[in-house]
Structure formats: structure tokens, C-alpha cells
């Protein structure tokens, strides 16, 4: 249970202990094997780019599963370690095989802090580059094929580009990696998230399923639909801030569409399961029904001012260290965000609601959604 996991030890004590993984000072043996850990390290099959067996039994159906994109360094890596240390089965994603391999070992090391529970650790690792939308689709298929349950999706991966680069898909890289990729990945995984929510034990809050879309406090006032791909003007800061504005609005619209689909199903004479079968054509979503889809909590956030490679490249060393960057972990796991309806769908700064998907953003986010649909060729099944 998530509540039990977070109760012992505290978030602060996990974070403090994990500093050793970043600084090289901590309770880990020189071999890199966690003190007292059982089992074996996960080995990555670089050729197939898929590996999903870990230190702990991957088929343990009592464990909560979390996918963290961009989990090989920075806040994504720290969040993956925090989740592992708190007993989650973690799916590690990155674009470099060597970095994924290193992250897998270090995330598995983090489970030593809660080794007595024996549940934390990597349950999957995938090398996929969001420079390619085909790779985004492949990552979704990797997860769908290998992981029957998915509780947390942390759309963390992002780039800050020094110059304008157009991908093979024809989009400016910042827009593709920071906006199109999470839109596409989330859409393909949404039915799995919903069925996970519908199949778990409601009395234990195991149905607590969340999507966290990482935006930034660095945003533009509005989306410039005439310069989506920065073809008119490009600066690193503008492209990044523009993408984070879009990420927040995408998250707002996703929440609104989920809420609207659940509400409409309740008025349909067919009943919610038949309604979703007819409307979405998605068997998995039909199985989940309104209860499953409605239990998927969507939020967005500024991850904090943290000395990641991205911050150092764009703004310099003006933030906290990554091993203190716990906002994403808290938003993904703390029960108060599930229990407080004001957090549902909201954009958070310093773990506090900063903005909600109100009428003032409706026209802009709906227009952006159409752009994302057309750009990816993917329509959500809701």
C-alpha cells in the first residue's frame, strides 16, 4: 500500500540516505551492490533494447509500478531512486544504453534503504529516443507488452537545445521531445493506467493511479501557434519556455477530457463499460469503465529550481542539488494530492496549486490538443 510505504521511513530520510548515490558517500559497498540486497542485478539486452527482470520478482502483482521517462540523470534519476527506495517497481527509460545500464544499477542500489520490504527495484528498462516518434510508440508497446499494471507515469524527459534542430519527423526537437512525446506516450498508456485503477482494491487505495506532466515555472504567457516549430524565430530559452507552456496546457486538457468522458458515461443508457467500448473502440478502456478512468489523477508541476544539466546550461548554478529535489516524488505518491480535489488537474509550484484548468485556458488548450493530434496522428480513445 502506498500509505504504508510512505510512512516508513519519511521522505526526508529516504532523500538524505540517497545522497550517497549522487555524492559517492553513503551506505553502499564499493562493489555497487546494495548492502544486504538479495537477488541479482538487472542486465540490459542492448540489442533488443528491452529488459524487464530485476532484483525483486518482476511478477509480484502486489507491487506498485512506476514509469519515469528521462530517468538516467537529474530529477528523473533522483525520482526513480526515491520510488525504488519507497518500495515501487520502477521502469527506467533513457536514450543512451550505457546511461540506462548505469541508472538501473544505481536505482537498484537505492532499494537497500528499504530492503526489508523486498519490493523496490527496477522491473523494466528501455532505451528509446524521443527524437523519434516511432521510438515513443515503441516505448509504449514495451510497457504494454511487459507490464500488465501501471500505477504512475512521470512524464519527466525533456531537452534544452542550444540551437534549432529538426527531427526526422519534421518537428523542432524541443517541441517534439517536450510536448509531442508525452502526449503520444500518455495516450497509448492511458487504457493501461485506467485498467490498473479499476482492478485494484479500492478499500486500500491501491487504485491510486497518477500521471505527472513536468512543466516549468519558465513559461511564455501563451502558445504562439504561428511559431510552434520555432521556424520564425528560435532561441533556446523561448523554445524551452514555449514547450513548458504547452505541457501545462496539455495536462489541463487531459484532465478535462477524462472528467468529461466519465461524466458523459454516467448519463449513457448503455452503462459505462458499453459506452467506452462504443465511443473509444478500445477494449482495455471499456474494461476499465468510468471507475477506472475516473481514478486516474492528472497533475502538472514545476519540478523546482534544481542544478540539473538543463538548468546549468540555460541559467547557471542557481538551484538546489538534485538529491533534494523531492517535488515530483511527493506529487506522485503523497496521499494528500489524491484526497484534495483542488489538486486534481492542477499545475503545482513548490507542491502547491498555482493554476487550475479554468475557462480562461479552454480555447487555447483545445486548439493545442488539435495540433498535437494532427502532429502525432494519434487520437485519444476518450
Structure overview:
This protein is α/β, with parallel strands linked by helices and 382 residues long. 45% of the residues lie in helices and 11% in strands. It contains 13 helices and nine strands. A nine-stranded mixed beta sheet has the order 1-4-3-2-5-6-7-8-9, with helices on both faces. Helix 3 (74-85) links the parallel strand 2 and strand 3 (89-94). Helix 3 (74-85) runs parallel beside helix 4 (97-110) and helix 7 (236-267) packs across helix 13 (362-376). The longest helix has 32 residues, at 236-267.
What is this structure, in a nutshell?
With 382 residues, this protein is of the alpha/beta class. The chain contains 13 helices and nine strands. Helices cover 45% and strands 11% of the residues.
Please trace the helix and strand order, writing H or E for each element: HHEEHEHEHEHEHHHEHHHEEH
Euclidean distance between termini CA atoms? 29 Å
State the shape: globular
Instruction: Assess the beta-strand content as a share of residues.
Output: 5-15%
Mean pLDDT figure: 82
How helix-rich are the residues, as a percent range? 40-55%
Keyword list:
disordered N terminus; 9 strands; 382 residues; alpha/beta; single chain; 9-stranded mixed beta sheet
